[in-house]
Amino acid sequence: MFFRKNSYEAVRDDRDVVMESSICTGEKTIGFKNPRTGRIERSVVVRSEQDIDDFYREHKLIKTKEFKL
Fold this sequence. Notes:
Mean pLDDT: 80
Strand content: 25-35%
Strand order of the largest sheet: 1-2-3
Number of strands: 3
Order of helices and strands: EEEH
Helix content: 10-25%
Largest sheet: 3 strands, antiparallel
Low-confidence stretches: none
Shape: globular
């Protein structure tokens, strides 16, 4: 009767991290790309290099990618 929505909560790693830029405003966000849906989850607005470092630290990941701001 009651159903739970299955969310993608698999083990995350650096390969799942992507950065997107808005076409209209140029605002950049970083988050995890869901391989099933192609959508970005848990995204955070990026204004500086420190925001990227904080994202990696918050999710306990090792930074192996370089993103252009």
